[in-house]
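*Target chain*
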Amino acid sequence: MELLVVTLAHIMPDRDAEGLARIHLISDTIRNALGLVSASFYRSRGNESYYFMLTTWEDEECWQKARDRYNPKQLLLGSATELLINPPEQWLMHYLWGYSRPAAEPILATIHLGTIRPDEADRAQRGWIEGLRRQVVRPILSFAFLARGSKEDTIASHAFPATSASG
């Protein structure tokens, strides 16, 4: 199953031009990764300066093999630390629903990230899919998807629980 790696980076507003140059370098680096299906990079237009990176990998195994060299979060931390307001956030997700109308030219991208309590996740997921399906009938929508997953930090902390030693 494909794996979607979502990375969000907040750049200092007065360093936006430098940030854009670094994102281009990171984009060029990531596009060389084996197992990469697609990579899309988005830049904010508002007062805040941030970048949103979507990379889709063939599966989790491809991501595990590539992540040491092609992890967007680590590439940002390694090459743009002085430009970041705070460390980038990264989520590992799986696609639940998707839609693409290649003939429609994308003009505006909107991204909604939500943290949902586990007991409400299925109900929220059904509601979002229904809402997206209603939007599909409108000819202005060029691309939409719903994905579900966890913050990479959360996954790592569950996989490698903290231990303490007393002596």
